[in-house]
What we know:
The protein is α/β, with parallel strands linked by helices. It is 42% helix and 13% strand. The chain contains four helices and three strands. The protein has a three-stranded parallel β-sheet with strand order 1-2-3.
Amino acid sequence: MFLSTVHLFRAFRGLDARFNTLIFNHVRTYGHFEFRSASKQDCDIIYQQHLPTIIDQIISLRLSNDDNTPQQIERFLSRDFIFCHFIQLQSLSLFSMYSQKQ
């Protein structure tokens, strides 16, 4: 089983310069962010601290509003990321989206 990019950031980011370099090389090479199993706290940290510095290297994003990650899509959109800055983005997947009755 492989670690997702989110889990790599959580586990190894900030330990030392070598780990940071390896993580950013991984992002440059693969560029996939799978947030569907990420906690709210992990998402918030990555959205705030890391995504702005690597936004131009992300190839795919997967977000979900399922029971384990409620309102993840809304939290991502509330960060006011500008989609034209995702210049490498080839895939945006949104899972478990539900309309709200008013």
